[in-house]
Amino acid sequence: xxxxxxxxxxxxxxxxxxxxxxxxxxxxxxxxxxxxxxxxxxxxxxxxxxxxxxxxxxxxxxxxxxxxxxxxxxxxxxxxxxxxxxxxxxxxxxxxxxxxxxxxxxxxxxxxxxxxxxxxxxxxxxxxxxxxxxxxxxxxxxxxxxxxxxxxxxxxxxxxxxxxxxxxxxxxxxxxxxxxxxxxxxxx
Length: 188
What we know:
Blueprint: E1 9-12, E2 19-23, H1 35-46, E3 58-60, H2 63-66, E4 80-82, H3 83-92, H4 96-107, H5 110-123, H6 146-157, H7 160-166, E5 170-175, E6 178-183
Helix pairs in contact: 1-4, 3-4, 4-5
């Protein structure tokens, strides 16, 4: 078995979903910014449904998104940004502000977006995951397992747009018509 510093790990076969290696892979733990994988899934699968959002839709940033802490794209209240650029800000620089704005834009509130996330997890057969936020900042009721996170990541990687975004090294977003280049924080 590999010698890992992590307390929780899993390697799965993406075809069979069989566990090739596991270390506490079924223990419920906080998922932090990996939450944003599910945020991206829910966003991408909701485009054009009910809310009429498309990747080209320009969004005005709300106060709730602009005031969130942690890692950020750098959005301010009233900024204008496309849904596509929010997606890149979500996945490349792990923007908590982008995550919050996506939640509000898709579902009207963070709470309603969390319901969509939990519905998706249930649809995927996940019994040990619960979502409360779109960004993963600490919240006692927000958790997954290493195994279920691997399933979420596998599912997301089968979505062409998600796969395209996460393999991007640098990307230039437009906020209020001003260019800002962001870099992928994922060293892989």
